[in-house]
Amino acid sequence: MPATLTLKNIPNTVYERLKMSAQAHRRSLNSEAIVCLESALLLNQPTANDRLARARALRTALPKDIFRAEDINAYKQEGRQ
After folding, report:
1. What is the pLDDT along the chain (81 residues), one digit of tens a residue?
2. pTM recorded for the entire structure
3. How far is 31 from 11, CA to CA, in rounded Å?
4. Terminus of the chain with fewer CB atoms < 10 Å: N or C?
């Protein structure tokens, strides 16, 4: 069961940064605080940049002549008409 946490005496600069980050990510202050805490405390979780780097590495490892962009787009569009 999730716990409840009340924060007091948050410095204005921290609050404003959290508020701006929440707005930029279209999250509530509570959700943004949870995301920030998770990213700081759960260090074994890959970041978005880590995931992107892994995806790019996998893409470059694929054979170039088998997976053409035109073929992939055609398969994606198949059945959508």
Report:
1. 889 999 999 999 999 999 999 999 999 999 999 999 988 888 777 788 989 999 999 988 887 777 788 888 888 888 776
2. 0.52
3. 19
4. N
